[in-house]
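Fill in residues.
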């Protein structure tokens, strides 16, 4: 409670070094140190948090499904005494991950069936998703790609880079390539640059993007050198992934600032999660803080039907209600598009509150954000004669 009050007056907080008081700034600010010192074991969690029975059981389960890993930077955002902490719910496994809900799927977005080449998902006509690694800085418990990510699940990702580049060269309709994984920003600068350079050598590819949670989990990775490299491959955009306002720390804000200063337009993709951000006030605080970081809220995803995520999923109505609480009440730039990635491979489908009360061949009847009713004609009105108009003017 007191922390919440602090957060609302000081909107960006540094939680460093937190549980790692003995670590000096040189190590702390080095992303390789963050990566090497992630919390990945039950003992690592228990030495810093009071785990619940559900969490302890969840960690044992995680070993065969989706690995446990949390960077020290992100770990410090967890409230040690609060088992319902919204940060903790995202990265600390729980027993419920072992539950089998009737709607659950291993590959909810049907990606495996849309891969012409291993590691390349070609679902939409003019753009592709390129999975360049199976590793992340930390693992989100609701990961839509948990079947292949983190190296402990039943499937493995075997991206064939040469085949993928050949496919992209041959398919001149592809103008947009989205690097994801795993997280592309875990690659070294030189490995990542090799990929970007190769993509830029393909004339019909206009637009490059990186989807990454690294700026949030490990802001230390966003070095000036990385930014200098990335800015050579413009137009390059980036989608980050923030779900709760607490994730926007001083370090994250500064990392996002370095990316924005490198001319990289930033968007955010949130996932609607029970007990994390399924609340209009939290969402409002999140989208406002994102704008302060020069990040445009892009998508709000209904949580995919990924196996073991039923305890984190909400109703679709909750998402619609949240969008409705934002639209008209705050800056249009702050409002993400709510989408459902259609189960089985239909792609992203927008889901909106309905503002159309009635619509026929003559008119559309609208409701505004306050619930007031307005009418707009569907057909152009019959023109008024000049004679008539001049009469009106002289009146
Ligand atoms: C999300 C996604 C994209 C990008 O979609 P946009 O709506 O353009 O951001 C491309 N390919 C796949 C397979 C995706 O899931």
């Amino acid at each position: 409670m007191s922390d919440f009050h602090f957060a609302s007056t000081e909107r960006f907080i540094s939680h460093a070094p937190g549980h790692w008081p003995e670590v000096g700034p040189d190590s702390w600010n080095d992303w390789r140190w963050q990566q090497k010192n992630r919390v990945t074991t039950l003992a690592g969690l228990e030495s810093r948090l009071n785990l619940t029975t559900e969490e302890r059981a969840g960690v044992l389960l995680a070993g065969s499904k989706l690995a446990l890993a949390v960077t020290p930077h992100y770990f410090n955002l967890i409230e040690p005494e609060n088992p319902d902490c919204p940060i903790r719910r995202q990265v600390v496994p729980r027993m419920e991950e072992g539950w089998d809900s009737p709607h659950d799927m291993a590959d909810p977005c049907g990606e495996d069936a849309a891969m012409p080449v291993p590691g390349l998902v070609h679902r939409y006509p003019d753009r592709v998703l390129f999975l360049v690694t199976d590793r992340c800085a930390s693992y989100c418990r609701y990961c839509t790609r948990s079947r292949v990510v983190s190296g402990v699940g039943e499937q493995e990702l075997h991206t064939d880079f040469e085949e993928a580049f050949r496919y992209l060269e041959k398919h001149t309709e592809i103008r947009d390539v989205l690097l994801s994984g795993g997280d592309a920003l875990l690659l070294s600068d030189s490995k990542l640059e090799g990929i970007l350079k190769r993509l830029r050598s393909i004339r019909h590819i206009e637009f490059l993007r990186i989807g990454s949670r690294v700026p949030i989990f490990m802001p230390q990775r966003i070095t000036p050198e990385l930014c200098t490299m990335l800015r050579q491959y413009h137009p390059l955009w980036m989608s980050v992934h923030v779900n709760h306002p607490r994730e926007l720390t001083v370090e994250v804000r500064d990392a996002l600032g370095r990316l924005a200063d490198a001319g990289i337009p930033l968007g955010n993709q949130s996932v609607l999660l029970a007990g994390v951000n399924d609340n209009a006030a939290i969402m409002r605080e999140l989208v406002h803080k994102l704008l302060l970081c020069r990040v445009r809220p892009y998508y709000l995803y209904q949580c995919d039907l990924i196996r073991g995520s039923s305890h984190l999923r909400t109703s679709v109505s909750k998402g619609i209600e949240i969008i409705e609480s934002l639209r008209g009440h705050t800056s249009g730039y702050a409002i993400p598009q709510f989408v459902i990635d259609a189960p089985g491979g239909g792609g992203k489908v927008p889901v909106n509150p309905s503002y159309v009360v009635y619509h026929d061949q003559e008119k559309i009847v609208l409701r505004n954000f306050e619930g007031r009713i307005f009418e707009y004609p569907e057909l152009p009105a019959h023109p008024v004669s000049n004679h008539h108009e001049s009469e009106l003017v002289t009146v």
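Confidence is low (pLDDT under 50) at residues 1-8.
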